[in-house]
Write a structure and sequence with these properties.
The protein is an all-alpha fold. The protein folds into two domains: 84 residues, no CATH class; 87 residues. Helix content is 64%, strand content 0%. It has ten helices and no strands. α1 crosses α2, α6 packs parallel to α8 and α8 runs parallel beside α10.
């Protein structure tokens, strides 16, 4: 069974990295309907459950599209990733934050700071991790606010330390 990374790499070798990344951006933004081949490339065996109706959650293709952007990238995908930080599904928000961190999408810093107050623990943790990489001094308070969070507190402390080092200033 291929990993998500391997499936995306296979899709990139067939269609090109830019094409895959742009398709994922369109899917993430709700501007494309996934065909079966692409769904299977992004979602693997889980996609089969979505395609045959056993899995009813409509957010999975957006989650898989965001995850694929960890492995295939085009700068034109950045606006779709930033917009996905406002998705109704926490799974999409979490995965988009991981892309924001990896791709260092500074334009998403304010939205990431807002997600430090998300109701879902995994989203809060992903938000502080993203801010460690892209946050500016004005985002430090949002990170500090999570120091006492039982799930994301340690990540918040590490994020603030990384921000201090990266920005080379006290926060």
């Amino acid at each position: 069974m291929a990993t998500p990374k391997e499936r995306v790499e296979q899709a990139c070798s067939r269609h090109g990295e830019r094409a895959v990344a742009l398709w994922c951006a369109d899917l993430l933004a709700g501007q494309a309907l996934p065909d079966d081949d692409v769904m299977l490339s992004l979602g693997g065996a889980h996609a089969e459950a979505v395609l045959d109706g056993r899995e009813k959650a409509d957010y999975w293709p957006r989650v898989w599209a965001a995850r694929a952007l960890l492995y295939a990238w085009a700068p034109q995908a950045a606006p779709a990733v930033a917009a996905a930080l406002d998705d109704d599904s926490w799974r999409v928000r979490e995965m988009a934050l991981k892309v924001v961190r990896l791709r260092e999408l500074g334009e998403a810093a304010d939205a990431a700071a807002g997600l430090t107050g998300d109701e879902v623990e995994r989203v809060r943790k992903a938000a502080v991790r993203a801010l460690a990489r892209i946050g500016e001094a004005e985002h430090a308070e949002a990170v500090r606010d999570l120091f006492d969070d039982p799930f994301a507190g340690r990540d918040a402390e590490l994020a603030l330390r990384e921000m201090r080092q990266r920005l080379d200033r006290p926060l």
